[in-house]
Each structure stands twice: as structure tokens, then as C-alpha cells.
Design brief:
There is one protein chain. By secondary structure, the protein is mostly helical. It has one domain (57-292): Orthogonal Bundle (MetI-like fold), CATH 1.10.3720. The chain is built from 14 helices and no strands. The chain is flat.
């Protein structure tokens, strides 16, 4: 079918607009990557724009010189894996129960959960609860307070309601299937899409979290990666605040500042790699899970 002139013009405008948006979004990410492997002096001088200049891995070498980085990486990995498992254990059964028509009082329970989206106890009361439960300086202080995201629960509930029908349960019930058996043997296997979405949402949240560790963890051996990287930058910037009295000292200070600028970009890449590696494995479920979970509630 021959396309009219208006359609061609419209497609051209849309293509140009989307290309501009792509460049606006992708270029900063690309620039961070090339800056992390460029000469510190070139980066500080604003010379790195389109390609790396003076290829070097000094930024990465300086980061990994600190033994706390690998310890923090391992800690973050443990916190993320354990946290996601607990999140799924709490979120999926809750969402399934609230999606069933036979569950009496589900509106009141849902309202109770939704209130927590708008009102919180505050930092100090939460800290006192964590302290009284003897969870300070433990990974449970980072995992248990946020074991359920109400937003994620509502998305999962909508998914169950839209895809796991009451008729399916009634058919299973005729064969002697209980609610628990139905959930574990039928509902969960059919919920791979929403489970993948929850893994991504919760996983990214745990991996990027640093404020909870800053408040509840005082033992540096238990710091997550994000807090370790933050402390590296603060330590280096504190060293730069010293006053240089000689020309050689000032030159060394400038070189240190340039290296810190590159380290910042290296830290961004290092902390982003696990999430980038996770996404391809759940990409096929991502769009489906988000769209189905947002159709109706």
C-alpha cells in the first residue's frame, strides 16, 4: 500500500525526535565510560568528548587498591541475594492472598498496607526499634525493615488477579488441591514474569542502598559496596583539602584531584556492572510483567 505524504512526514518527525531523545539519554552514559578509561588530565581539562584520550586504567587500579572494595562487593552481594529472597517470600504470598475474592477483609488489609505508602514512623523511631530488636550492625537491619514494598505488592496482586482466575482454583479444588498447594504448584510456576520483575526491582534497590547501612552499620567489615565507594571518595577529597606549600606539592595535589575525577566514573561503572549483567536474563519477562501488573487493580 502506498503511503501518503503526511504519513512519511509524521514518521520522519517521530524518528528524528526519538533519535534526539536516544542521544540525550545515551551520551552521558557513554561519556562516563570513556572518561573512566581516559587520561585524568584530559578528563579534568574537558578534552574528553567523543572518544577516550590517553587510554589508562588508573582509575580502576586506584579503586581496587583498596581491599575494602572486594569486601564491600561481597557484602552487597550477600545482602542483595538474601534481601531479594526474603522480599519474594513476603511479597508473593501477600499479593496472592489479597488477589483472592474469597479472602475476607482484604480491602481493610490493603488499606492498612497503603497507609504506609504515605506515612512513616520516621528515622529516629525506626532506629530505636532496630536497636531494641538487637539488629544494629547486622544485615537484618538492612533487609527486614524493607522486606515488603507496598507498590511491588500491589503490582504483584494485580498480576495474580488478572492471570490466576478463581475458575482455575475451583478446578484444582475439585481434584483435592488446597490453597497452599495451588499457590506453590500452580500459581507460582505461572508467575515467572512478575517474579522476574520483583527480582529486578528489589535487587536494584538492595544493591544501590547505602543510607540504611550508613545509619545502622558501624562495623566497616560489614559495609556494603556503595558505602565503601562513598568513603573512598570522601577520604580522597579530605586529603585534597590539605594546603600545599611548594610547587611540587601543588602539582601532586592537582594530579590527585584529576585522578579522583576519573575514580568517580570508575566507581559508577563498577557499581553498575551487576545490575547490567542481571537485566539480560529477565528482559523477556520485563515488559510483560510490568504491563500486566499495571492493567487494573
Amino acid at each position: 500500500m502506498k503511503r501518503c505524504r503526511e504519513d512519511v512526514i509524521f514518521d520522519a518527525v517521530v524518528f528524528i525526535l526519538l533519535t534526539v531523545i536516544l542521544l540525550v539519554v545515551a551520551y552521558p552514559l557513554y561519556w562516563v565510560i570513556i572518561s573512566s578509561i581516559s587520561d585524568p588530565a584530559a578528563v579534568s581539562g574537558g578534552k574528553v568528548l567523543y572518544k577516550p584520550i590517553g587510554f589508562t586504567l588508573k582509575g580502576y587500579a586506584e579503586v581496587f587498591k583498596n581491599s575494602a572494595v572486594m569486601k564491600g562487593f561481597l557484602n552487597s552481594l550477600i545482602y542483595t541475594v538474601c534481601g531479594v529472597c526474603i522480599n519474594l517470600i513476603v511479597t508473593l504470598p501477600t499479593a496472592y492472598a489479597l488477589s483472592r475474592d474469597r479472602f475476607g477483609g482484604k480491602k481493610a488489609v490493603t488499606l492498612f498496607y497503603m497507609v504506609t505508602m504515605f506515612f512513616g514512623g520516621g528515622l529516629i523511631p525506626t532506629y530505636l526499634v532496630i536497636r531494641n530488636l538487637h539488629m544494629l550492625n547486622t544485615m537484618w537491619a538492612l533487609i527486614l525493615p524493607g522486606c515488603l514494598s507496598v507498590y511491588n505488592m500491589i503490582v504483584a496482586r494485580t498480576f495474580f488477579k488478572s492471570n490466576i482466575s478463581e475458575e482455575l482454583y475451583e478446578a484444582a479444588e475439585i481434584d483435592g488441591c488446597t490453597q497452599g498447594q495451588f499457590f506453590f504448584r500452580i500459581a507460582l510456576p505461572l508467575s515467572a514474569a512478575i517474579t522476574a520483575i520483583l527480582v529486578l526491582y528489589y535487587g536494584v534497590g538492595h544493591w544501590n542502598s547505602y543510607f540504611s547501612a550508613l545509619v545502622y552499620i558501624s562495623d566497616s567489615e560489614k559495609y556494603p559496596l556503595q558505602l565503601v565507594l562513598r568513603n573512598i571518595l570522601i577520604t580522597n577529597e579530605t586529603a585534597l583539602s590539605q594546603t600545599a606549600t611548594t610547587e611540587a606539592a601543588r602539582a601532586a595535589l592537582r594530579e590527585k584531584q584529576q585522578l579522583i575525577d576519573v575514580m568517580k566514573y570508575s566507581l559508577i561503572i563498577i557499581s553498575s556492572i551487576p545490575v547490567l549483567l542481571l537485566y539480560p536474563f529477565i528482559q523477556k519477562h520485563f515488559v510483560k510483567g510490568v504491563m500486566i501488573g499495571s492493567l487494573k487493580g
